[in-house]
């Protein structure tokens, strides 16, 4: 087991899958010669050649649509969309093409492709480079949506995504790329659709994804000092959802807080909150609390940006409200 | 591969064009009788493009189509009965009634999709050409698209990438003059869209789309070029749809005389006349009668076929919650 950065773990997953399966290839802006603006694809072009690691023009619409059809015709493409904010450019290929074909064509085709992108705020990247559009893609039936929070999951879930016969939207976070953690060597494939309980607790369940998992863990430390024991559940996969893990945790703590970096209105937290009420209403002693980014464009200046993003403080407050 | 179709090839193109025409006419009648669902987009008058462009392709070659794809389906070798059954929403259709007439696919025939999003087939074929290249197969991908799709941004993106990467793809522009009800002259800054090829560094070829033999020849040359690794070709086939945009079309936007003028250039009698000297009227009549019977039988059978029952499909299972 080696200690790797999140970006290095992703790189290792890509490298191992390309070595294992010649049908795997990569495309995206700046991923080849430069190795990716977040260095996730570093050295892969040198290793696998320009045909399998394609630098592309700035043409997100065409690239995503090409990825869909390349997946239907015998290859396993992994597309990098540089920022999640650019996902709106890819929506036709996702909502009208990739997500429908397996069902509409009665199983005649599989679509083994991965769209990797990174989102989230906190880096001062401004309103067009900081969004979390998780709900945008999780809304569409026919897509799987994965959001790893640790280097080990980054590797394990990316390997699983590449091997999956269905389209997977793989959401990374710009503030996690430098995070270090133990990553199993070699064949480490995680299961898509399984949540993980990262901290056991008896008083309130916090369901979080991506960077918010770490804010939730920080909140749990603070709450513990006050005598509130929060259970922290990393969903890891937004769709399909690990319903049994969610229900089991709520039945244990009788209180639920959902945390997602997306906007709250019509957001992923709203879906999660409704799902908990659909499946575990009788176990709830209080309404589900939602924590997300304030409903407004993400501003640039640091104090402004920090004010709109969810953090450990807001998560802890929500937990206190839940158990009050 | 020959650049000119043999007499047998031409007779087969003629037969398929008659199948498509009779299918379109029957669909028009069924729509009037209230026996179809949703809009049906007929391609009467455009059969020479779809049939001529696919005549030399193998099952291992891919095509992507449009919302007006009946000639492309039949040209690529799909079974008229299963196409008709899909259009009528039957369990026996190519997609078990899930797709309807605009999005039909038969993966085994390399027909991976009609597409009801205008322009979406263009990057799709480009991506298929990437697969062909990466896996080292001797095949091509072709997108059939209209003059409306030629105005989309995704068309520009795809042509640039295809030419940049020298992909084995053929862009076959089926120029029928109208994007829904708006004439091409009110949508495009140039009259001949094939001139745009120069901007992408690929050949642009302008042909008479109502001449199946001309379509065959131009496409055969583009296929050979693609297979030599020289990259894509843009072929613009000028044609016309006799019928409205769809069965919901109220008409009134085509100038007087325009339809009559194009009807005089109907691709089916035109190929028939060319073939008469080679094989005689009697055989042509027999081929026509057989084609009509095949289509009539297809509709009779499909109309008698069961409608699908709704049930969970294996294809939708991966998206449900983990239990």
From TrEMBL, chain A:
Pfam families: Transket_pyr, Transketolase_C. It comes from the Bacteria. Keywords: Oxidoreductase, Thiamine pyrophosphate. The keyword Transport does not apply. InterPro entries: THDP-binding, Transketo_C/PFOR_II, Transketolase-like_Pyr-bd, Transketolase_C. CDD domains: TPP_PYR_E1-PDHc-beta_like. One of its GO terms (molecular function) is oxidoreductase activity. The keyword Oxidoreductase applies. Its cofactor is thiamine diphosphate. Residues 4-179 form the Transketolase-like pyrimidine-binding domain. This is Alpha-ketoacid dehydrogenase subunit beta. It comes from Kaustia mangrovi. The lineage of its organism: Bacteria, Pseudomonadati, Pseudomonadota, Alphaproteobacteria, Hyphomicrobiales.
TrEMBL record, chain B:
GO terms for biological process: pyruvate decarboxylation to acetyl-CoA. This is Thiamine pyrophosphate-dependent dehydrogenase E1 component subunit alpha. It comes from Kaustia mangrovi. Transmembrane segments: none annotated. InterPro entries: DH_E1 (IPR001017), PDH_E1_Alpha_Subunit (IPR050642), THDP-binding (IPR029061). PANTHER family: PYRUVATE DEHYDROGENASE E1 COMPONENT SUBUNIT ALPHA, PYRUVATE DEHYDROGENASE E1 COMPONENT, ALPHA SUBUNIT BACTERIAL AND ORGANELLAR. It catalyses: N(6)-[(R)-lipoyl]-L-lysyl-[protein] + pyruvate + H(+) = N(6)-[(R)-S(8)-acetyldihydrolipoyl]-L-lysyl-[protein] + CO2. Its cofactor is thiamine diphosphate. Keywords: Oxidoreductase, Thiamine pyrophosphate.
């Amino acid at each position: 087991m080696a200690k790797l950065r999140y970006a290095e773990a992703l790189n290792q997953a890509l490298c191992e899958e390309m070595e294992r399966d010649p049908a795997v290839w990569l495309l995206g802006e700046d991923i080849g010669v430069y190795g990716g603006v977040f260095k996730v694809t570093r050295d892969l072009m040198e290793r696998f050649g320009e045909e399998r690691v394609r630098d592309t023009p700035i043409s997100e619409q065409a690239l995503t649509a090409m990825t869909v059809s390349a997946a239907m015709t015998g290859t396993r493409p992994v597309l990098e969309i540089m920022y999640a904010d650019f996902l709106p450019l890819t929506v036709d290929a996702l909502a009208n093409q990739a997500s429908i074909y397996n069902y509409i064509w009665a199983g005649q085709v599989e679509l083994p492709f991965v769209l990797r992108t990174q989102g989230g705020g906190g880096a001062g990247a401004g309103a067009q480079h900081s969004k979390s559009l998780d709900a945008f893609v999780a809304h569409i039936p026919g897509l799987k949506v994965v959001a790893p929070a640790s280097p080990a999951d980054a590797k394990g879930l990316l390997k699983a995504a590449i091997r999956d016969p269905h389209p997977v939207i793989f959401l990374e976070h710009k503030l996690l790329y430098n995070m270090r953690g133990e990553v199993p060597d070699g064949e480490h494939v995680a299961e898509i659709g399984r949540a993980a309980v990262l901290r056991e607790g008896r008083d309130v369940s916090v369901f979080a994804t991506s960077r918010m998992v770490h804010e939730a863990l920080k909140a749990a430390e603070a709450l513990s000092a006050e005598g509130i024991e929060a259970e922290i559940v990393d969903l890891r996969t937004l769709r399909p959802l690990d319903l049994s893990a969610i229900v089991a945790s709520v039945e244990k703590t009788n209180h639920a807080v959902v945390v997602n970096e997306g906007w709250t209105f019509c957001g992923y937290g709203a879906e999660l909150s409704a799902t908990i009420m659909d499946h575990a209403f009788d176990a709830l002693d209080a309404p589900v609390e939602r924590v997300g980014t304030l409903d407004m464009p993400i501003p640039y200046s640091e104090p402004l940006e920090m004010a709109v993003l969810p953090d450990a403080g807001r998560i802890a407050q929500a937990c206190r409200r839940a158990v009050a | 591969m020959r650049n000119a179709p043999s007499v047998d090839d031409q007779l087969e193109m003629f037969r398929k064009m008659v199948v498509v025409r009779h299918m379109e006419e029957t669909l028009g009648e069924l729509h009037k009788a209230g026996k179809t669902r949703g809009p049906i987009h007929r391609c009467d008058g455009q059969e020479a493009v779809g049939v001529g462009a696919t005549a030399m392709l193998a099952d291992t070659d891919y095509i992507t189509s449009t919302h007006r794809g009946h000639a492309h389906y039949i040209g690529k070798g799909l079974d008229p009965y299963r196409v008709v059954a899909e259009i009528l929403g039957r369990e026996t259709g190519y997609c078990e009634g899930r797709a309807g007439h605009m999005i039909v696919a038969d993966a085994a025939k390399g027909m991976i999709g009609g597409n009801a999003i205008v322009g979406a087939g263009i990057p799709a074929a480009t991506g298929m050409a990437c697969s062909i290249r990466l896996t080292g197969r001797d095949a091509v991908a072709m997108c059939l698209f209209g003059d409306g799709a030629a105005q989309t941004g995704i068309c520009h993106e795809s042509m640039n990438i295809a030419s940049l990467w020298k992909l084995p793809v053929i862009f076959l522009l089926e120029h029928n003059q109208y994007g829904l009800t708006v004439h091409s002259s009110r949508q495009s800054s140039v009259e001949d869209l094939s001139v745009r090829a120069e901007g992408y560094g690929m050949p642009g070829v302008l042909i008479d789309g109502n001449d199946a033999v001309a379509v065959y020849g131009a496409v055969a040359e583009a296929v050979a070029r693609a297979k030599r690794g020289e990259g894509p070709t843009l072929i613009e086939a000028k044609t016309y749809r006799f019928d409205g945009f769809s069965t919901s079309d109220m008409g009134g936007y085509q100038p007087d005389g325009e339809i009559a003028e194009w009807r005089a250039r109907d691709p089916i009698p035109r190929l028939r006349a060319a073939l008469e000297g080679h094989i005689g009227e009697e055989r042509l009549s027999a081929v026509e009668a057989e084609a009509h019977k095949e289509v009539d039988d297809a509709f009779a059978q499909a109309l008698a076929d069961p409608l699908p029952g709704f049930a969970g499909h294996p294809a939708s299972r991966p998206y449900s919650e983990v239990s």
